[in-house]
Every structure is written in C-alpha cells, then in structure tokens.
Amino acid sequence: MDVFFRDFFSDPVLFLSFGFLGVVISLCLFFVYFFMKKVHDADIKEQH
Hints:
It comes from Pseudoalteromonas haloplanktis (Alteromonas haloplanktis). By secondary structure, this protein is an all-alpha fold. The chain contains 2 helices and no strands.
C-alpha cells in the first residue's frame, strides 16, 4: 500500500487524472443538488 501512495504522488499524470475526476464528480453532485433544490422551491402556478 505504501508503494501505491509513493507512485500516486510521484506520477503527475495519475495525480492530475484523479484530481480532475474529483472535480468533475463534485461539479456533477453540485448541479444535481442545485436543480433538485430549484425544483423543490419552485412556485407551482395553477392552470385554469
């Protein structure tokens, strides 16, 4: 397990790929939260 962390922090391609993957997943989670909150708080207008 120690070898994995040493290789992870010494290899910039591996480090940046996991970094960008974390950014993409966090953006996806933020937008899911944002749109669910907007849908929940939306005013529903009555249709006649």
